[in-house]
Predict the 3D structure of the following.
Amino acid sequence: MEHITLLIGIVIVTALVFDFTNGFHDTANAMATTISTGALKPKIAVAMSAVLNLVGAFLSVEVAKTISGGIIDETAGIRPEVIFAGLVGAIVWNLVTWLAGLPSSSSHALFGGLIGATLVSVGASGVHGGAVVMKVLIPAVAAPIVAGLAATAATRLTYRLARDRAEEDTAKGYRAGQIASAALVSLAHGTNDAQKTMGVITLALITGGVVAPHADPPLWVIASAGLAIALGTYLGGWRIIRTMGKGITDIRPPQGFAAQTGAAATILASSHLGFALSTTQVCSGSVMGAGLGRKGGVVRWSTAGRMVVAWGLTLPAAGLVAAGAALLADQGDWGITTVAVLALVVCGAIWVASRRKPVDHTNVNEAPAAEPAGVVTAALQAVSPPPAGPAAPATEVAPVPAPAVADAPLADPVGGDPVIADPVAARPVAAHPHEAHAAKRRAKAGSAAG
């Protein structure tokens, strides 16, 4: 620790800030469906997720090794300024997508930032292109598809197994399953995303000569990264929780259980293999798959489309911001100071903008504005129409006696000619016996007068 320079210290603090934004940006991954179905109260859900994210940070370091020595060549002349610029690009993109309520990938924001800053400062030789393709791009495409297909199959199986049981009989069990699967996703998130910050800090320590190349993250790095992501998770990214829980599809307890279980299995498997995939994309794919898995379920494809666009923009957008930051940071101390000041101004402006329409635990479950059904949704509903809901309980209504004068000839008040009353218009509103007798007497008196 005594060899850490001021610049490396700034990089470490910036990395922990990114880890904090990663936490509240990705809270929705574990808890959106649990909160939207009412399985857990919002504050309890994020507190549980925070604790399990902290625990998960201590379970593995494979992803951290991928970051510190897999994507970026630590021996190619990478300096702490480069890592600082990459982190700034990732943080800015995280906050922009958080303000928009879009569950984009914090992981890809980090990768894009590091790659963009490295390309500007070192050149293409500083980036391991093969590792980027194999461990970032291919998982980015495959993971949400695999998780979505798994969630679709799991949802269909879940509903099939419970087809002879009333929904209210199984709801309690599914909610308990949701809580367990959400806990597993939170644990998996800690093992994957917290390690990315560990890898960045370790990379900064390697470039500064504090630790040896290819070294594992020190214990204090693991602990600080785990605490930062846990704190961010506890504060809760309510905007993204609303989008994922209510904006993509209407999640019911069986769907939430299937989506979270499939997502947790995918994330844990990737962590074991060292794939630094996006937990956001995995969980979003699972939610969409669960929406398609329920007969008559509706996926809001315009929201899903905006998410996919954000996914595609994340790497290049964060890379461009980081590249600009790297150009400034390479100018020396004044450049680094300028980058830090600009980053603080942008982050402050985003926070001020978020206060205009705040979203928190009190209104996170408010449904978004109604979205008209698109072509895809209409086609799916035509093939698989929604199941008929339970019949409404019959309300006993006293029989209304037939109108006594519906077809009786009535005297025209002007000419005296009899007219036939309209049976619908003349239908009495009240059916009390006394009123019926009174109407009959009035009809007889009118006939006698005529």
Summary: DSSP finds 15 helices and two strands in the chain. The radius of gyration is 31 Å. The longest strand covers residues 409-411. Confidence is low (pLDDT under 50) at residues 370-434.
